[in-house]
């Protein structure tokens, strides 16, 4: 937010962010020089400028702050797939099982620090046994690495505000003579719970490392992850292609050992300036065919409206498989039907990669007798459990209903021989069609639980005109009911 301001402020000068609160402009945040001069969040801007007349003040933008925090969280995905927001200014990373990949916790912390400093972000990092302990050490302590089992000793000297509870609770505890977390931990939990509620005791246990609750990451952890980190940023397209090929083959070997295939493959590119670019590849069936996945990747990359820009280079690439399903080896039948089906599915995957998921559709059946709701268009690669089987056509009989219908139905002008009979002729789009053959009616009752009370009854007819064109028409309503006369509609065309 400060970078977007027209007024540049040196890092060693005090400045504040302000927002309107209770009818007055108050400080919502202060930089370190401002805090050193005695300014605190919540102070009115008038009081702050009474102390520092030329104090720069900028309007706070919480939405922009959250967007920046989410961008930093996306970049931290290169260190661990478990990254959670700790509003308003923090991130929590679960590095369980990840630190050894970077040479240990100390080297991982140093790497995170270098990345944050390169992005121009002031930071304090802490590693502890529980998320709450790490958050408290980073915000109110000196940071650093807490040795295993040392959470309680490190947390006890911290002030009560590190509890993360309401300000009224902190004020009440302070008035009772308690100043640090250690003072609170020495009190009987039953007494504290009776006065301040059980939530305070739960938070205290988590803060002291006595109870561990996992974080809720921004992105669900994928079923399979492989990655490459480069000592020097990579800019050459050929080097990127080789790295992606190696990642795909490694993921295919992992999936093969598990007897699984991937339905969704996501490649994340981490640029050295902190930018992150993600590209997703979706398949219509589980797959671990490395060659096919690489072809889909090339199709996806060639059709990008915003080409992949390496900038100063990528220093890490991660391939995640968020969605895996069991996959058994299928033997090709003698009539090559399996090979034909495989080719069709491969074509669908290529079309999806080139044109997008929402532009390649298929029909899915629904459990309803209403033709308006019987079929729905869904992405071709979507996993949709059929609500009802498609009706099996009788051999030699024409289709009972069109594959695709008009929505909404097209109104037509008709002439019928008898009120309840099929039309003799109808006019549609200024063209008169003389009916040569008609079949019906097929009476379809309305679904009152969806359409509301007293929707009109519909009688459907399959009709053919003198030129051989076939139509699907219906009459909405019945004669001699005392209501408005029924109307006719064209609902679909037969091929």
Brief rundown of the structure:
The protein contains 14 helices and 19 strands.
Provide structural commentary.
The strands form six sheets. This protein has a six-stranded antiparallel barrel with strand order 14-15-16-17-18-19. It has four domains: 16-60, 3-Layer(aba) Sandwich (MutS, DNA mismatch repair protein, domain I), CATH 3.40.1170; 64-207, no CATH class; 224-338, Dna Ligase, domain 1 (2-Layer Sandwich); 405-493, no CATH class. By secondary structure, the protein is an alpha+beta fold. It is elongated. Helices cover 29% and strands 28% of the residues. It has 14 helices and 19 strands.
Q: Number of helical segments?
A: 14
Question: Describe the biggest sheet?
Answer: 6 strands, antiparallel, barrel
Number of domains: 4
Q: Quaternary arrangement of the chains shown? A: single chain
Q: Report the uncertain regions.
A: 1-6
> What class, by secondary structure content?
alpha+beta
Secondary structure layout plus pairing:
Blueprint: E1 16-21, E2 24-30, H1 32-36, H2 45-51, E3 57-59, H3 62-75, E4 83-86, E5 90-93, H4 105-118, E6 126-127, H5 131-140, E7 144-145, H6 151-155, H7 167-175, H8 181-185, H9 189-196, H10 198-207, E8 224-234, H11 237-258, E9 260-271, E10 276-287, H12 290-302, E11 314-326, H13 337-355, E12 361-365, E13 375-379, E14 405-416, E15 423-428, E16 431-444, H14 448-451, E17 458-465, E18 470-476, E19 487-493
Parallel strand pairs: 1-3, 6-7
Antiparallel strand pairs: 1-2, 4-5, 8-11, 9-10, 9-11, 12-13, 14-15, 14-19, 15-16, 16-17, 17-18, 18-19
